[in-house]
Amino acid sequence: MSMKPILFSGPMVRAILEKQNPKTQTRRVAQTKGASVCDSAPLQDLNWCGDVVDDASHLFEHGDVYLKVPDAGTETRHRVFPKYKKSDILWVRETWREWDESDEIDDDPEEFREWRPRTDPLPACMRADCGELEEEQREAGLKWRPSIFMPKWACRLFLEVENIRAERVANLTTSDAYAEGVAHYVRTAEFKGLNINSKPAGAHSSVMAFYQLWNSINAKRGFGWDENPWVWVYEFKRTLKPANWPTV
Fold first, then answer.
1. How far apart are CA 89 and CA 61, in angstroms?
2. Which residue has the higher pLDDT, 74 or 241?
3. 30, 166 contact by CB (below 8 A)
4. What's the CA gap between 40 and 76, in Å, rounded?
5. Long-range pairs for 139-142 at CB < 8 Å and ≥24 separation?
6. Which of 4, 94, 155, 227 is the most exposed place for a label (fewest CB within 10 A)?
7. Which residue has the higher pLDDT, 47 or 163?
8. What percent of the chain has pLDDT over 70?
9. Burial, 189: exposed, middle or buried (Cβ in 10 Å; 0-12, 13-18, 19+)?
10. Whole-prediction pTM value?
11. Could you give the count of Cα atoms lying within 13 Å of 211 in the half-sphere of its Cβ?
12. What phi, psi does 100 have (nearest 5°)?
């Protein structure tokens, strides 16, 4: 078991915090730097096109799932492993800032009461909870800090990896879509504005929602739904903050 950071946007954090149908899966593009580890070749030198990539998820070595991907210039196949492993504890990095005297620090979200003692308050102010800054706060110089720069002491959400598999993103099922938290996206204003008139033929509304959400994030990166990239599917559950977690 290892402790590793993972980034989630505000809407995804809120989906994880849902009481009903919470987000319990996340998909990460396998061929991107930072999402995978290759045995002996740079990811950009591999041939990810067509059907040349083998899903070796049925071949386990010490419980590790991997993909077999050919070198772009040779027939050599390389093993590509996911960044995270089963039983890893992921500490969630989200957009944050330190508490300010203008904040009302009396909020202990009900979603966290079973996960944290009342004597252990939220370590920092999270954009997922607090929303946009008030004009007075902006004038006072307050600003949100990017999730990638969140320090360990500010983390309030921890996830345990329960299962990992490799598949094409378009293999998503209706139950997978709900596990990705689409019920939250569809129900809230965070889904409004996406083009719901375009969808995979015959897709269930939950799959359509994920299809739109996926493209809104990944199409501009070259990994849209139609490209059908390989992804790591991580199934997780919320867990308690580890003992001796940094407080400063």
1. 20
2. 241
3. yes
4. 11
5. 140/100, 140/102, 142/97, 142/100, 142/102
6. 4
7. 163
8. 77
9. exposed
10. 0.84
11. 23
12. -125, 155
Q: Report the C-alpha gap between 149 and 95 in whole angstroms.
A: 9
Query: Do residues 95 and 11 make contact, with C-beta atoms less than 8 angstroms apart?
Result: no
145: its two tokens: 């800090």
Range 189-194, long-range pairs (CB < 8 A, 24+ positions): 190/11, 190/14
What's the pLDDT tens digit per position in 211-240? 888 998 899 999 999 999 999 999 999 999
Which residue from 93, 145, 156 is spatially nearest to 122, judged by alpha carbons?
Answer: 156
The CA distance from 36 to 56, in Å, is 15
